[in-house]
Amino acid sequence: MVTAIMTKVAKNNGFYKLPYTIIRTAAIIILICPAYSAAAEWKIVPRLNLIETYTDNVTLAARGSEKSDFITQINPGISLIGTGARLKVNANYTMQNLFYANGSDSNRTVHQLRAGENAELIKNFLFLDSNANISQQNISLLGPLATTNENITNNRTTIKTYSISPYIRHNFSNFASTQARYTHNAVYTDVGGLSSSQSDSILLSLTSGTAFRTLGWGLNYNKQRIGGLGTSGENERYTGNLRYRVSSKFSLTGTGGYQKFSYTSITGNSAGSFWTTGFA
After folding, report:
1. Would you list the DSSP string of the chain?
2. Torsion sign across C-alpha atoms 247, 252, 257, 262
3. Sheet-wide strand order for 87-100
4. pLDDT tens string 65-111
5. What's the pTM value of the predicted model, to 2 decimals?
């Protein structure tokens, strides 16, 4: 039997404004590369989903303690796609509004966002990657494990992440290619003791070009600093690799390097060399 549920919805200011993250991301893109934004082809698609769900165990309780409920969802959203020769943007936002027929005190609004951008700021030289995400995840494997936001549990929280990464890329004819990249990542949650963490990393690489058909090589340097979660640390790594082409379908590979880090390991060592061999 299908039952139609009418729910009175109180005025929610969230319906009339997008999250600050979306506005900030769009503003950064427009300010950094206004010419590219104007030249790109933009597609904006608003949407509205109305969903009615019945569940016989809304709290994911143990057998014998189940509670049933009808759940009404009113979910406005918008997608933004920008495609240009030197700019690509893809953003998808949903405001999920959940209303419970038998438990109105659990009515809530959650935000979901997936946004990414790639811009070529200086042709064939300077680039920028960035992304932002908002989602809901389970906190602990020991609590009720919900696969959606419809269930009412205390084991679910909102996680917000963003990343911004400018980098330089250059080719030295067919001799080699190089890249220098800086990346900043951040994660935020509302969970006590795990409120936020941030990391900053630098990557430098030099890779052989097509002039080295038989023996290819590569050099890499990476340094990362992590802060938050009640601790901080640094990780530094130097790597070199070789690839010897035996035939058009078979190559031998080798990697060697040195790594050091500031935090304490199980063995007590904080630095050391490493190597690998293999084939492709």
Report:
1. ------------GGGGS--HHHHHHHHHHHHH-HHHHHHSEEEEEEEEEEEEEEES-TT-PPTT----EEEEEEEEEEEEEEE-SSEEEEEEEEEEEEEESS-GGG-EEEEEEEEEEEEEEETTTEEEEEEEEEEEEES-TTS---SSSSS--SSEEEEEEEEEEEEEEEEETTTEEEEEEEEEEEEEESSTT-SEEEEEEEEEEEEE-TT-SSEEEEEEEEEEEEEETTEEEEEEEEEEEEEEEEETTEEEEEEEEEEEESSPPTTS--EEEEEEEEE-
2. positive
3. 41-55, 69-83, 87-100, 108-122, 126-138, 156-172, 176-189, 196-208, 215-228, 231-247, 250-261, 271-279
4. 999 999 999 999 999 999 999 999 999 999 999 999 998 999 999 99
5. 0.78
Q: Which two tokens stand for residue 6?
A: 């009418």
The count of other CB atoms within 10 Å of the CB of residue 187 is 18
